[in-house]
Structure to design on (388 residues):
């Protein structure tokens, strides 16, 4: 890993919308020329990227006829073969067209909801044909600015109906998709219904097929809400629901900046990498981010290479952390162990409860145990700064 050169086995992936981003924002027009999807996949493959992700409209223009659709599908399969790159995730654009101006799955209009389901089913068919095993749902328009216009309980009910329908469709077709819902607190809507990983985890348990559905947390979206991304990812992982991740960077409590991975809050980002690698997480290390608006085409590929290199550098730092004798000694010292008490607390029993009620504790003595967190944090800081 010392060379920090990406390899296919590192399982890096990028959304086609990331590298194809033309630099447009609400205050300015595009600054880069359009990058066609076939060239996009080819350039990713040339850089040892493991997989690409796509929205239906990233690959096949909205409203394309059958002839154009078939041509693009054929070209995509060929470039996947030529450059040894897989389609690791598929998703549907349910936010750009004006039909979705007030939501897709949560729209008041049943025709809009039906069209959204149709659009997803067609792209699920295509994603399965490409071999994708994860399907992500980001409800960018599933929200509100005017609370009097739409009640959250009705919107959530409609979203549930759509997810149940699509889970059943996937099962009927024999697809192997794992669905992942992507939380975000706001933007482009004033408020979005599934704002955090916790909201999504609670919602999943109300579905007909909860085992099929997990979470796709994104670094930027967690930080937009002022949350700790490391904790967000960890809660989804502990629940067995970390089905996909989106990596990038973000200043807290701002608009969705989609900055290059690792360019903000290096310590929190380090712990995200540590979480994924220490647990041998099986998913792709997916980047959902945009090159700076000031960049040209060359800068786009610098951005791709930089994201992967930063991840590999942080992974190397994780290995250093795990081998650092002083850090490991501190961790050993602060992690207490009492098998007898832990055995009682692990599972409730009447006998265990009685023992615990009678147990003698000395709170003052227990509280005197030293917790050298300042030293631990300083050593982590120095490790990340390359001092040792």
């Amino acid at each position: 890993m010392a060379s920090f050169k990406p390899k296919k086995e590192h399982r890096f992936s990028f959304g086609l919308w990331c590298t194809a981003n033309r630099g447009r924002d609400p205050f300015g027009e595009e600054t880069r020329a359009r990058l066609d999807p076939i060239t996009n996949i080819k350039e990713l493959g040339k850089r040892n990227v493991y997989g690409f992700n796509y929205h239906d409209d990233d690959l096949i223009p909205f409203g394309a006829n059958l002839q154009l659709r078939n041509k693009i599908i054929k070209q995509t399969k060929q470039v996947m073969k030529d450059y040894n790159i897989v389609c690791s995730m598929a998703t549907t654009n349910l936010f750009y067209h004006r039909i979705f101006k007030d939501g897709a799955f949560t729209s008041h209009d049943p025709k809009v909801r039906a069209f959204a389901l149709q659009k997803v089913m067609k792209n699920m068919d295509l994603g399965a044909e490409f071999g994708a095993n994860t399907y992500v749902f980001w409800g960018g328009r599933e929200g509100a600015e005017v609370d009097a216009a739409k009640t959250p309980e009705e919107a959530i009910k409609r979203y549930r109906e759509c997810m149940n329908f699509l889970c059943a469709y996937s099962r009927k077709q024999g697809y192997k998709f794992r669905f992942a819902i992507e939380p975000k607190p706001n933007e482009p809507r004033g408020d979005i219904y599934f704002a955090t990983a916790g909201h999504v985890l609670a919602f999943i348990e109300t579905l007909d097929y909860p085992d099929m559905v997990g979470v796709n947390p994104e670094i930027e979206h967690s930080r937009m809400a002022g949350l700790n991304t490391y904790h967000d990812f960890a809660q989804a992982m502990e629940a067995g629901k970390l089905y996909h991740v989106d990596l990038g960077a973000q200043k807290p409590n701002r608009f969705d900046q989609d900055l290059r991975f690792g360019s903000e809050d290096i310590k929190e980002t380090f712990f995200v990498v540590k979480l994924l690698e220490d647990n041998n997480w099986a998913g792709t290390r997916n980047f959902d981010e945009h090159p700076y608006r000031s960049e040209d085409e060359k800068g786009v590929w610098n951005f791709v290479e930089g994201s992967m290199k930063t991840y590999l550098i942080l992974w190397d730092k994780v290995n250093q952390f795990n081998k650092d004798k002083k850090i490991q000694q501190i961790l050993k010292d602060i992690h207490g162990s009492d098998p007898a008490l832990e055995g009682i607390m692990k599972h409730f029993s009447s006998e265990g409860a009685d023992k615990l009620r009678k147990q003698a504790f000395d709170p003052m003595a227990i509280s005197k145990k030293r917790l050298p967190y300042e030293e631990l944090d300083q050593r982590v800081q120095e490790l990340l700064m390359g001092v040792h």
Q: What stands out?
A: DSSP finds 16 helices and nine strands in the chain. The chain has two domains: 8-319, 325-384. The longest helix spans residues 297-323. The longest strand covers residues 86-91.
